[in-house]
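Appendix C reproduces, verbatim, an entry submitted by the partner laboratory led by Prof. M.T., so that reviewers can inspect both the input and the predicted structure.
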Amino acid sequence: MILLQMNLCATILILLVLIVRYFLLYKLPRRTFLFLWNIVLFHLTIPFPIKLRLNDLKIAKGFAGLIMHTDNVSLTNSEIPIDRMNILRFHGINELVEVDNCLVTFSLKMIWLIGVLFCAAYFLVNHIKRRLEYNQALPHPNGVVDTFQFNLSMKRTIQLKVSDRILSPLTFGIFRPVILIPTVMKIKDECQLKHIIMHELVHIKQFDIAIIWLFTAILCIHWFNPFVWVMCIFIKRDIEVACDEKVLKILGVETKSYYANTLILLEEVRRELISTSINFSINPIEERIVSVMKAKNSHKVIMHVPFIIIFLFIAILMKVNVSAYEGTGDKNNLSNIAVPDLYGKTVDESRSILDIHGLTFIIE
């Protein structure tokens, strides 16, 4: 039940991010969207809501009763006491429903667990298979990695290799990162190689690989939610574009035309080897090229701060469980109150008993 509640709230947050992303895609820095995605990640990671009691916040009891309207008990007649037979019949039905709910809950948990194990096994096997292919890569003769690594103040040892098993440059490894360049890529000059290496070095410096693995783990847990899959697709895009923005910030915005040409080269290599493809949205490379060409020297911070504040406010409201309960009894176990305490009591007497437990009722 908690997992479903988490996904319901997370789905709303994902839709909000996608809406903001659709209208302000090229107007806000991609780090803004990554920040919003991290809020969704936090929401999907914490399995319990943050509980706040209204009496701890010193909020009026009348306002608390308004919020906790769902805790009210409805009585149909203010003169007739509660019937013992009706109470017993009510509890008999509850016992049958409880047994059925247990079976359904157990079945759903098993289906969810099988899905988690299947997704985890799929990603793990795929990762091991690719790592075996990457380990066959050969060292690249160019030693420019050391120069850029020094410029980015990176202490980790980074290797540059070439491989005939990949279609585009990539990075693997967190503690011992390796940059792979496809042998099929015909690099025209050192400037293009510089752009490629800088892009991958920024990925390494910002630990983007670890972030992707974290979102993959969340995907395995929430595999049944299609919006989580959509979120992971757009997260990878935003990570790539955010990395492009960082590279342009280092090299200078005046180099964006040359950097865009490097991205076009990557797309040409990919299309030569994959002649047919089906895309239901804008091409990721095309999105990166447009973002690069629209890059500016700086973004107005005041422009995107309000969106972050509003989104944070919505996320907090969804995560915080406000409780108006001020009594010492267990308000979630109404049956324990009804049978021993409400039998044979009038409305006024029942009102007093329920008030002790922090509950109220409505007379219809």
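The two ends are 32 Å apart (CA to CA). Additional entries are available on request from the coordinating office.
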